[in-house]
Design a protein that fits this description.
Layout: H1 2-16, E1 27-33, H2 38-51, E2 55-61, H3 64-73, E3 78-81, E4 92-106, E5 114-115, H4 117-124, E6 142-146, H5 151-160, E7 170-172, H6 175-184, E8 188-193, E9 202-203, E10 205-206, H7 213-217, E11 224-232, H8 239-248, H9 254-259, E12 263-264
Parallel strand pairs: 1-2, 1-3, 5-10, 6-7, 6-8
Antiparallel strand pairs: 3-11, 4-8, 4-9, 4-11, 4-12
Length: about 270
């Protein structure tokens, strides 16, 4: 009788928790890819593992293209990409977990507060080279961007129509490095995942629209992209990997994704 009561209480507790509790799920889930998804992955992994102690989920931030390759060649159970798949990237499929705005960031000392998508493109291609041309102070603009293969870079360049045309002064390998560089240079401008922006930089409005959860979800903020899990197109995932994906895409995870600065779909 005590054993039956214990099992019943265990089941009630499981239903009451935010995470998808699974007594049967066990093993290791390796995820690899987008550095922009680090905060989202951090909160999802922590919450999931609290309620699924038999599963260990690892995160490795290597960039979106590397994550897609890892999912394809099997070195990761789940690839992470902060962009959509290209036509040439076959054999895998994307599962969208959240949306994210790509914030355009400047140094807090910069008086410029709003730019159009066209002006942003002109800045990064070198057509506009001085802040005074945009109503700012005299100063040579310093465009800061991500490295080739970055999902943030791919998203930014595809939306602004600047593929293979940007003239970066620095190409950095993480979102954090872009933010740090812009924070330390009054003439710098860069782009970063909305979820990663802090008070060391200023996110400007784009065509008069602020990058927020609401404007990303309703589509009024122009520079946005998807946060995707990348998995093989054929074949079954491990029970643990499928359990983690089911949780991350459930309504139970929505508040966690919001708290991490991204926009949940569930």
């Amino acid at each position: 009788m005590k054993k039956i009561l214990s099992l019943a209480l265990s089941g009630m507790l499981c239903l009451g928790l935010l995470a998808g509790c699974s007594d049967s799920a066990s093993g290791v889930v390796n995820t690899d890819g987008s550095t922009s998804m680090e905060k989202v992955m951090g909160v999802l992994i922590e919450s999931y593992q609290e309620n699924n102690p038999g599963v260990t989920v690892n995160y490795n931030g290597t960039g979106s293209s590397a994550g897609i390759t890892a999912a394809l060649d099997g070195t990761a159970d789940i690839g992470l990409a902060s962009r959509d798949l290209k036509d040439s990237e076959t054999g895998v499929k994307a599962i969208t977990v959240a949306k994210d705005g790509i914030a355009i960031i400047v140094n807090p000392q910069n008086p410029v507060a709003d730019l159009s998508v066209e002006q942003i493109a002109q800045i990064f291609t070198g057509e506009i080279a001085n802040w005074s041309e945009l109503g700012g102070s005299e100063g040579q603009i310093v465009p800061i961007g991500r490295e080739a293969g970055s999902g943030t870079r791919d998203g930014f360049e595809s939306i602004t129509g600047t593929e293979d045309a940007c003239k970066y002064q620095n190409e950095l390998t993480s979102t954090g490095e872009v933010i740090a560089n812009v924070a330390s240079n009054p003439n710098a401008i860069g782009y970063a995942s909305l979820s990663a922006v802090d008070d060391t930089v200023k996110a400007i409005t784009v065509d008069g629209v602020e990058a927020t959860e609401e404007t990303v979800l309703d589509g009024s903020y122009a520079i946005q992209r998807n946060f995707n899990f990348i998995v093989p197109e054929e074949g079954e995932l491990s029970e643990a990997a499928q359990s983690f994906i089911d949780y991350a895409t459930s309504a139970d995870a929505s508040q966690l994704i919001t708290d991490a600065g991204a926009v949940p779909l569930a």
